[in-house]
Write a structure and sequence with these properties.
The protein has 411 residues and is an alpha+beta fold. Helices cover 55% and strands 10% of the residues. The chain contains 21 helices and 8 strands. The chain has a 4-stranded antiparallel β-sheet. A 4-stranded antiparallel β-sheet has the order 5-6-8-7. A hairpin with a 2-residue loop joins strand 3 (139-142) and strand 4 (145-149). The longest helix is centred in the first third of the chain and has 16 residues, at 119-134.
Amino acid sequence: MSKQWAALIRGLRVDQKLSQMALAEILQVHRGAVGRWENAQRVPIPKLQEHLRSYIRRRRLSRDFLTRKGRQIIPLTLANKVWLPRTPELAELIGILLGDGEIKKDGSLRVSFDPKKDMNFLRRRIIPLLKGLVKVKVGFESYKRIQVFNIAFVRFLQENSKLQPGSKFEYNWAIPAWCFTKEEYVTSVLRGLFDTDGYVGYCLGSVEIMFGRFSDRCDKLTESIVMALQLLGIKSSVQHTKDGRFKIRLSSQRMVLRFFQKVGTSNIKHLARFLLWRLSRYEAKIELEGLPTLLKKVKKRYGVDLDTEPIPFLWQSHHPSLGKYALEDTQMEKTRTMRNLYKWNVLVRDSVQVLGMTYLAQRVKATLRSIRKWRQGVRVPCAKNLQVLVDIAKKNKISLEKYRINHDEKR
């Protein structure tokens, strides 16, 4: 009897697109009661059984059809071994669930969001991912949380990704092991985490990225995020605060740029703050100014409508409007790697002998004092000046090979 009622109620909810909370409100019972019925732990009392029969009759539904439909939900994954392929989209959805999601034992998935800042992200990324992977209609459980029901998908996450339904703190969730098998999976799961539980901020006039405040019971998740960042060559620091939480920070401008080059974002609130910092050094205060104001500033200054900007957004040179700025950062990063390749003091000394100190200073746009310190080896030119020195050497047919560090030993 309990299994029959469980199948009937499950089939009713799925057919009518009802969340457990919605059905509980109809029957005027606690949501937990609906979950226990579906798990065949209890049977509705006679009064509620009649209430359910009356509701089904009013909707002109078939009890036999609903029961059959309810019975078909559970075997889809475990009995027939129907598994979803591992894709970047699945990895990103898992990142979203690790950030602001919940996985319940009754087969429901919930994702919380900020209705003032995340509606674009919800509409253009979260809901399409859920519809595409979970294959069910997405409903609003409240004004700041959505819910879908698919017990087969929940069991798939449990078996395939070791994400146990229930409290993420109790089970100490972590990024699934399979997400580390390909770089595209790593970037996708990090993007989902960042878009839900991270932000772009400013500290002492410099930009930083932070992955939210994780409970100290989420140490495995913290470790897996740091490991994923390391695989992408992104350095981070972990802070354990006095209130018992972990914060993962990217406080280097180089690391912030590298993060947006490799991981990117699908949430325009992060994108607006990043672009205004990178292009204008403007510290956007989204809580005070509001997201619409920041979006208007980006559109007015750079002609980019973030509401319709293709996502996920990556800081790369192929962007039609912003590619030239991204290319500058890419070239600058390549130049930084040159700092340890050549004996810059010797190159500057020889360039001065050929071109003269005043002319070289004018070309590099540096002071004579800086040129002297470079020549003495007291300082190394910055990345921008290194590229200018290389261009000057090539133009004047000065071979860089003889200035390469350990060049004589290699010969």
